[in-house]
């Protein structure tokens, strides 16, 4: 099979561009990595255009250069990375020749970026309303009362509830999906000509994904905005892309229209990525393994939750009264050894709160949590500490959950050493885990900031496995991973289950992923379970209206990756 040549790429770009000048033009951009020995590149000799009024999706694995090229456009590369050659032209202006003051004037007004990790991108000491208003204040836009109205308009525009109250909230009080919508509101505040979206729907549930994708597509069409959409989700690509660019190890290997790339992929790497996309409907659910099913039937549940309740005070209302939110409202379920229970639902449905309750990271207001037959809910922290190693969590935000001052080796070793494992044994196990999650051995001595979002999530998975737990609560554990690594991690979790009999509570917004790994699913809506059953049953014959809405909202539901590989 022939690969895409530079001539093919240039021809495809010219056809797509027609006679119109591109909004953004990247030519022969190379960004070397600061390493000794053999020359390595974050981005190497890439060229492509983005026109006003089109959405170009950039896809590839972690470390392929997707986010690096986006940061280069915005002038946000770290100080130790400098382009070696090439140009980045925004309406004919070479951004690589601009100083910081000049780039600052362009950011927000001419070009804006939606970042991948909203918790690290938002200022924890400012309310979300003030942060949106700051974008307008810096550029002297929407003066006086118009600025306040614009903040409320943007919060409502991106689908956030009760904007008048939510604008006074701090970022940590919002769910991951809500924080991402705040980031989108900030990026859209001044209606830039170029919008760079770096995995903007990664942390969002399918219904919110559908709303955000429709929102970006609508604004793009209304304003004639050019959109560079970085994503690993091929469903999203199928839903919104006009053109697709595929990157591998810093190089551009294929590009074309969405129909050409998704339905008739030419490059082996593109075909590999499409082959790793989870299939619709749960055909590959590990519950088909007869030996595991027998073990699950014979054993009593490892975890049994009965009538779990958790409420939060959501802040003061107009008369100073606090609004009570029933985050988890009378939830009951059980999980056996070697079984995977999927918990799906929208942001704010109570999925992550269930996970925190199981780990005793938050107090509960009622119900029982039986682990190994013992109710752990009333245990104090001191009483629960000996059992904490048996229940581990893979957190949703890999940046916020890793100590930025500790090396990866220390992060993986601290838990086992605190539990009495000798240092040498803990370090050996840590290196084995890095290999299991497919990180280079050199990661042991590096820091979290040196890794991509997907790589940091793999560190989080390795940390959870380091304690050799009986139960793992995975809160969106593969949402930040590209499809090929996602498939590898799901296989790894299944293998560990079969070998060690680990039980898994798998919290996710991605119904396709849930169908691949889960034996059974519970669907959460406003703190309650509205439907439960095997994945195939929920996909083929959903009983509840909410479940049907979730399935209908999955991006790219009309695209079949299996058929693409037959082309």
UniProtKB/TrEMBL annotation:
CDD domains: ABC_NikE_OppD_transporters. The keyword Cytoplasm does not apply. One of its GO terms (molecular function) is ATP binding. Residues 26-274, 303-551 form the ABC transporter domain. Pfam families: ABC_tran (PF00005), oligo_HPY (PF08352). Keywords: ATP-binding, Cell membrane, Membrane, Nucleotide-binding, Transport. Belongs to the ABC transporter superfamily. This is ABC transporter ATP-binding protein. It comes from Herbaspirillum chlorophenolicum.
